[in-house]
């Protein structure tokens, strides 16, 4: 073996670097364990960690401190650590409306409405591209020549410097796209700044999609207060100052005089019964349960038509919190509604760009020391604020004028202006906690978003569920690892020991490289690691079996090893099998989302490393033994003759197996047509909640109870899907109730309804706050939300991924073999996919675990495709070799011999793979059971199709041996 010292050098250097990278994880975990041991609660634990953050441990060749180690440790995904993952959609519609100065042109507004509808089914396209397409359709249908540079569209006065009146449509489109993309970039920077100030370790913030798409991914592992994060991310931070129109009797009289039925409200006879006069400078007080009715009136187009001109331009904004009736009294269930006015143009008296700095702190000048947000104005802002407060303080007389401080259309405070406020300092007070005040200051400090941002996909995993996932995954990993090590030594003796050493190094290299790349390890990632182990073992099995074959043909040990480690020996089969799997993983990496990408990343790195360790390192170990004049055993006395000299006539039974396969495939297709599949919210959209109870529950009883609460405004009931998820006291609740509405208020409404529905199954004294709290062990453990646009994206990408996987591996097989081989492999793979889908359909609702079709299932399908290909490619490689070695042997007999000769590898690998997956299936936790069940089926049908379908079809398509030789 040439260059063996180079191989050893690479392995030693790579091993040292990987140990160094992984040592940071060891050190950060050690410090956190010490902090937990020395603390009584989470606050003390954080204080200890803060005190140890910069303490240095010097080991000579490496120095550690906790802060540095934490940044370099192995990142754990949400499913292992808990936390939140969201996709934010910056509302490009709002940006277009702002750019067009809220144009009332019917073509413009119809195009926006049409773009909203189209994007739900074509979510992968940028909204701005869809808008232009719809605009041109509507313009043509109306036979209008309305250019984009028109003052009624984008040629407004505010855009005079960017868009000229004689610009062509193409020029304006590019200008608008550039402006939209720049504003989305600003939104990304603002959100990144907010996250930085939030102080999360290892946050992920990245833009998704194409230019102008407007989607931003935010992942915050380990975060405990997820509701706080949602508020932080979705706040537009549009700060405004308005004058409070307190004591306006004409406003009160107008609303009391309205007829609710005109606005489609039938359960309220008069608004006076729900809109009570306010004792403060707000105008009305409304109970929270009645705010939906008032909002329906306020949003109605009929309202302005009925309003007298004196109050038509007022703004009607709610308070940000329910009323507090006394200093230490709990919050009530009532919200204040303020009536506000601005300047002559109807704009706020002062905007948020006047604020230069903001900080959350306690009010040292107050006896109560309550939390406030202190603001420092810019020079221009201080001047305008001073002028405004001077005018209002002089105007008020005995009844002082008030200014409402409004953030995102919610009134945070409305202080009376007693005297001019000069110098540019101001405060916001509003019954905050200190954390809320600091969050609000951070939002203001980071700046406002150019448009509102909605959460269109969210996954929340509680820390307790994450820890359980770690425990179950660790058990599965250790069990798999021990089983593999024992089996390899039992079957291959010393060669098995070398394979095990290579395997240990493979895992070390894999984890070390993942840490250095900043990759995140999730449950699918762990499945990728274990699958990598199986693939690495397969490479060693192929080599060892080839050595055994050569030994039984009379070669000496050195000759047998030399042949096995050559391209004509085992290496071509190893490369072919790994390349087909890598192609599949690359497609997953491109088209997958979140955890599926993690699985693909792990698999790609692992497969490349497994080729290095199996082909080069194991040979290095063997040849070092030879240099010392020592022998190497490739079998034990028990396994020496296993599968040797097999003479099974596979070809004679091919028509029988064709019939069996066709019948099974027809049954599976029929089940798919009749029963269908259990599509998860990845493909349908909606919301899913994992809820744990104190005692075992019946899924049907829970579903019926929740159905009574999931009733919309029209009286329609929504039946949720409820399944036992793991233990009998844990369920997975999926609902399509208000699936197309993405507001946080709707998220909260649904959680409240689920709580009301399951209340009878919960402990008697459990409140909604306890049920939905982060970190709870009884209640909502995790939740996932997928909006309709995201579901459309996932469906499209999944179909593309499967098609490209088949096309990619088909082209590779065509490159390496002849077309008859390619058709045989594609037929075998298609059979495997149909059987897996069919069994998932047949067993839907029958088996005691989840059989949902989600992104992880697509990953399983593509992995099975790769596995099935691997088996077939190994047989085809041997057929190709035998054609050269035995030119006169009939093709029928040759295929039988090649299949028999590789049977040891096929059975050995299949058993190893099956046992590996079975252990993960048993111990790996509920979240990956469906994934692993698909893999279990895949191993069985993949082995079957490689032996009984692929090579037989190749034979029937080959007219003679010459056809098969052209490969």
Key phrases:
967 residues, alpha+beta, five-stranded mixed β-barrel, elongated, transport, cell membrane, protein-transporting ATPase activity, transmembrane
Could you explain how this protein is built, in words?
The protein has about 950 residues and is an alpha+beta fold. It has five domains: about 5-70, no CATH class; about 85-225, no CATH class; about 235-450, Gyrase A, domain 2, CATH 3.30.1360; about 460-635 and about 650-675 and about 795-965, no CATH class; about 685-785, Alpha-Beta Plaits. Helix content is about 55%, strand content about 10%. Strands 5-6-4-18-23-20-22-21 form an eight-stranded antiparallel beta sheet. A five-stranded mixed beta barrel has the order 7-11-10-16-15. Strands 13-14-17 form a three-stranded antiparallel beta sheet. Helix 27 crosses helix 28. About 45% of the residues are buried. The model has no long low-confidence stretch (mean pLDDT about 80).
Number of strands: 23
Strand order in space, largest sheet: 5-6-4-18-23-20-22-21
Radius of gyration from the alpha-carbon trace, in angstroms: 34 Å
Main sheet attributes: strand count, strand direction, barrel closure: 8 strands, antiparallel
Q: Terminal Cα separation, in Å?
A: 29 Å
Function: Part of the Sec protein translocase complex. Interacts with the SecYEG preprotein conducting channel. SecDF uses the proton motive force (PMF) to complete protein translocation after the ATP-dependent function of SecA.
Domain SecDF P1 head subdomain: 347-451
Organism: Moheibacter sediminis
Subcellular location: Cell membrane
């Amino acid at each position: 073996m040439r260059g063996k010292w180079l191989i050893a050098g690479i392995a030693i250097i790579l091993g040292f670097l990987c140990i160094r990278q992984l040592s940071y994880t060891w050190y950060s975990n050690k410090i956190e364990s010490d902090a937990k041991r020395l603390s009584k609660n989470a606050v003390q634990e954080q204080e200890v960690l803060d005190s140890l953050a910069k303490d240095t441990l010097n080991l000579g060749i490496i120095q550690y401190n906790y802060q540095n180690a934490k940044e370099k440790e192995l990142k754990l995904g949400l499913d292992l650590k808990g936390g939140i993952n969201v996709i934010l959609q910056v509302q490009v519609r709002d940006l277009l409306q702002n750019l067009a100065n809220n144009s009332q042109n019917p073509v413009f507004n119809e195009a926006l409405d049409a773009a909203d509808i189209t994007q739900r089914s074509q979510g992968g396209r940028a909204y701005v591209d869809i808008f232009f397409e719809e605009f041109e359709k509507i313009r043509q249908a109306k036979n209008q020549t309305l250019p984009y540079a028109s003052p009624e569209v984008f040629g407004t006065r505010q855009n005079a410097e960017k868009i000229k009146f004689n610009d062509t449509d193409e020029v304006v489109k590019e200008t608008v796209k550039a402006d939209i993309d720049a504003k989305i970039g600003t939104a990304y920077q603002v959100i990144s700044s907010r996250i930085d100030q939030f102080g999360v370790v290892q946050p992920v913030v990245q833009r998704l999609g194409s230019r102008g798409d407007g989607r931003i991914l935010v992942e915050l592992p380990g975060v405990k207060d997820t509701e706080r994060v949602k508020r932080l991310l979705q706040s537009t931070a549009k700060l405004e100052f308005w004058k409070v129109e307190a004591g306006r009797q004409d406003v009160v009289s107008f609303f009391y005089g309205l007829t609710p039925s005109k606005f489609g409200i039938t359960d309220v006879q008069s608004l006076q019964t729900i809109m009570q006069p306010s004792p403060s400078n707000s105008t009305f007080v409304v109970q929270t349960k009645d705010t939906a009715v008032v909002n329906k009136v306020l949003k109605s187009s009929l309202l302005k038509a009925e309003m007298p001109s004196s109050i038509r331009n007022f703004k009607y904004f709610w308070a940000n919190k329910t009323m507090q009736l006394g200093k230490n009294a709990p919050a009530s269930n009532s919200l204040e509604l303020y009536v506000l006015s601005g300047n002559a143009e109807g704009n706020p008296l002062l905007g948020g760009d006047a604020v230069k700095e903001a900080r959350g702190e306690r009010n040292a000048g107050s006896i109560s020391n309550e939390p406030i947000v202190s603001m420092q104005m810019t020079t221009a802002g201080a001047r305008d604020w001073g002028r405004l407060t001077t005018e209002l303080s002089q105007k008020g007389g005995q009844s002082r004028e008030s200014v409402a401080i409004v953030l995102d259309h919610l009134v945070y405070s409305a202080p009376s202006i007693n005297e001019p406020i000069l110098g540019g300092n101001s405060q916001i007070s509003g019954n905050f906690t200190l954390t809320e005040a600091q969050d609000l200051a951070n939002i203001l400090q980071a700046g406002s978003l150019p448009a509102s941002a909605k959460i269109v996909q969210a996954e929340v995993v509680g820390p307790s569920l994450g820890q359980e996932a770690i425990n179950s995954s660790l058990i599965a990993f250790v069990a798999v690892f021990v089983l593999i090590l024992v089996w390899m030594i039992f079957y291959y003796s010393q060669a098995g020991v070398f394979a095990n050493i290579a395997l240990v190094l493979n895992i070390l290299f894999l984890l070390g490289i993942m840490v250095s790349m900043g990759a995140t390890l999730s449950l699918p990632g762990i499945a990728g690691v274990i699958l990598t182990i199986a693939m690495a073992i397969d490479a060693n099995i192929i080599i060892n079996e080839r050595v055994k074959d050569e030994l039984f043909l009379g070669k000496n040990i050195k000759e047998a090893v030399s042949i096995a480690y050559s391209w004509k020996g085992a290496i071509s089969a190893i490369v072919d099998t790994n390349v087909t799997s890598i192609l599949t993983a690359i497609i997953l990496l491109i088209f997958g989302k979140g955890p599926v990408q993690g699985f693909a990343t792990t698999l790609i790195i692992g497969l490349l490393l497994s080729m290095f360790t199996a082909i080069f390192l194991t040979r290095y170990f063997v040849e070092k033994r030879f240099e010392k004049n020592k022998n190497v055993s490739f079998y034990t006395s028990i396994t020496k003759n296993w599968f040797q000299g097999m003479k099974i006539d596979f070809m004679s039974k091919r028509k029988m197996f064709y019939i069996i396969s066709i019948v099974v495939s027809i049954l599976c297709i029929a089940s798919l047509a009749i029963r269908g599949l259990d599509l998860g919210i990845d493909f349908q959209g909606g919301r899913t909640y994992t809820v744990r109870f104190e005692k075992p529950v019946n899924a049907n009883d829970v579903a019926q109870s929740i159905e009574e609460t999931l009733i919309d405004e029209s009286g329609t009931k929504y039946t949720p899907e409820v399944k036992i998820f793991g233990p009998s006291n844990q369920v997975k609740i999926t609902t399509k109730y208000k699936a197309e509405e993405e507001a946080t208020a709707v998220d909260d409404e649904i959680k409240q309804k689920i709580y009301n529905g399951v209340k009878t199954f919960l402990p008697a004294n459990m409140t909604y706050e306890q049920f939905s709290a982060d970190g709870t062990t009884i209640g909502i453990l995790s939740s996932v939300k997928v909006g309709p646009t995201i579901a459309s994206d996932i469906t499209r990408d999944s179909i593309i991924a499967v098609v490209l996987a088949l096309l990619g591996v088909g082209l590779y097989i065509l490159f390496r073999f002849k077309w008859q081989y390619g058709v045989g492999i594609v037929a075998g793979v298609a059979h495997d996919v149909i059987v897996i889908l069919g069994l998932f359909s047949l067993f839907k609702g029958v088996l005691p675990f989840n059989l949902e079709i989600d992104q992880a299932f697509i990953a399983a399908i593509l992995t099975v495709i790769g596995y099935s290909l691997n088996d077939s490619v190994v047989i085809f490689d041997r057929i190709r070799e035998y054609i050269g070695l035995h030119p006169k042997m009939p093709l029928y007999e040759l295929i039988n011999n090649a299949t028999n000769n590789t049977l040891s590898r096929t059975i050995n690998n299949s058993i190893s793979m099956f046992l590996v997956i079975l252990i993960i299936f048993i111990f790996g936790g509920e979240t990956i059971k469906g994934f692993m069940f698909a893999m279990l089926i895949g191993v069985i049908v993949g082995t079957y199709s490689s032996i009984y379908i692929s090579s037989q079809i190749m034979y029937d398509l080959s007219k003679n041996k010459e056809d098969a030789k052209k490969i």
